Fold Zinc ABC transporter ATP-binding protein ZnuC.
Amino acid sequence: MNAMKSGEAAPLVSLAGAGVYRNGRWLVRGVDFSVRPGEIVTLIGPNGSGKSTSAKMAIGVMKADEGRVERKAGLRVGYVPQRLAVDWTMPLTVRRLMTLTAPLPAEEVDAALQAVGIAHLAGAEVQHLSGGEFQRALLARAMARKPDILVLDEPVQGVDFSGEIALYDLITSIRNATGCGILLISHDLHVVMAETDTVICLNGHVCCRGTPAAVSQSPEYMRLFGAKAAQTLAVYSHEHDHTHLPDGRVQHADGSVTDHCHPEDGHHHGHDHHEDHDHGHGHHKNREHDHAG
Ligand SMILES: Nc1ncnc2c1ncn2[C@@H]1O[C@H](COP(=O)(O)OP(=O)(O)OP(=O)(O)O)[C@@H](O)[C@H]1O
């Protein structure tokens, strides 16, 4: 639990049993989570498991077809999508990128670039930026609008290990400085930002949720990743026992394919505050199912 977070603060966004249905199938169902001011929530899950869809539902970019999605009145959202719809054949400076979709006074552009450590690259062409510099430019662009919630879809894509640690440190310091809530989508199934308050693992539904295990504090982890990494990264250990195929059917761990998840599984069977790191989970019949919402 971090000092910035007020446990009493009303959620900025909250989803209850939310799902999206498109082109004859459910992309994701039964999604429950909320993000409060100062809180960091990380969505993980395999490709196509509904991470981006859930984040888009949370901020209203995609409409939920079931369940409830509530947002604080007047919520300001800073969204860094996985991909930008930009014509990369055209030269584009970092400064121009900052004002591409909405005007921003020059001094605010400079301040935002300064805050993410790339003030010296204001005149550089976006095409020439490294992966880490590009993600910083996108962060600056989102932060310049002083959002209540920052939604980052895979912010460490194309970034090496040390760059990843530096970016997570930056995200933490942005949270500490502004108190904004952060909804992060991670491409890594098992290693998440240590500052994460809640990990939500999606697999077409909420598969499990919990805090990142405190293994990052363990001597073994420090030996493996180094002390600096151990401060920033934590392991979230779990197993998936089934995969949702693109045609809507479900492939189970034994290779069998059925039309649905097993009926007793429900759409989501979270076991809150899953903190043991050796203990995988599956669709065990005797496990407590989370059908809230
Ligand atoms: N607008 C849409 N219309 C129809 N299907 C969609 C739409 N957006 C996403 N999908 C499908 O929904 C599923 C979930 O996609 P989503 O992008 O949420 O997954 P993800 O977990 O973020 O995946 P990745 O890790 O690959 O980014 C995918 O099968 C995708 O093809």
Q: What stands out?
A: The two ends are 25 Å apart (CA to CA). The longest strand covers residues 25-35. Residues 22-23, 27, 45, 47-53, 82, 246 surround adenosine-5'-triphosphate (CB under 6 Å).
